[in-house]
Design goal:
It is a single chain. Helices cover about 25% and strands about 30% of the residues. The protein is an alpha+beta fold and about 160 residues long. The chain has a single domain (about 10-164), classed as Alpha-Beta Complex (Peptide Deformylase). A five-stranded antiparallel β-sheet has the order 1-2-3-6-7. Strand 4 (about 90-95) and strand 5 form a beta hairpin. The chain is globular, with a radius of gyration of 15 Å.
Length: about 160
């Protein structure tokens, strides 16, 4: 049974390693069943993204998806995601995180990103993301690098967000 770990669980601070085709997930013989369970958990928690670190797995993959997105309208697990280019233009927007219940803080990130990732079948895909979808992808990718969103803001901004 997978669950979302809360900060400061140790896997949230660990850098994930690449997902390899022969990797497996403890308790699952079927990768599609795992993907389905991870997406169901993300939706049950009302998230748009859920990184492997947040469920205690330090491998490079995350769930992402929302009907308002352009590329990932359908909820999917993407493997070995990376940003290959990003816009000079930045945006500051409010973010929440399933590992930090009820805390919302403004984070600055590149507005547009170009990404590369692998599908469950091992195909390499490319996409250009903007808006909320770009922000969500970057937030989840940070998790895979052991960076939680409290590390992306000033101490003052973080303290103010925690008083709410």
């Amino acid at each position: 049974m997978i669950k979302v770990y809360q900060y400061p669980h140790e896997t949230l601070m660990e850098t994930s390693t690449a997902w390899k085709p022969d990797d497996s997930i403890e308790g699952y013989n079927d990768i599609e069943l795992f993907e389905s369970d991870m997406i169901k958990l993300m939706l049950a928690e009302r998230g748009m993204g859920l990184a492997a670190n947040q469920i205690g797995i330090t491998k490079r993959f995350f769930a992402i998806g929302h009907e308002s997105f352009d590329t990932f309208q359908k909820h999917v697990i993407i493997w070995n995601p990376q940003v290959i280019n990003f816009s000079e233009e930045k945006v500051i927007d409010v973010e929440g995180c399933l590992s930090f219940k009820d805390i919302f803080v403004k984070v600055e990130r590149p507005k547009i990103i170009e990404i590369q990732y692998e599908t469950t079948q091992g195909d390499t895909k490319f996409a250009k993301l903007d808006g909320m979808e770009s922000k969500c992808f970057q937030h989840e990718l940070d998790h895979l690098d052991g960076i939680t969103f409290n590390k992306r803001v000033s101490k003052l901004r973080w303290d103010m967000a925690n008083k709410g």
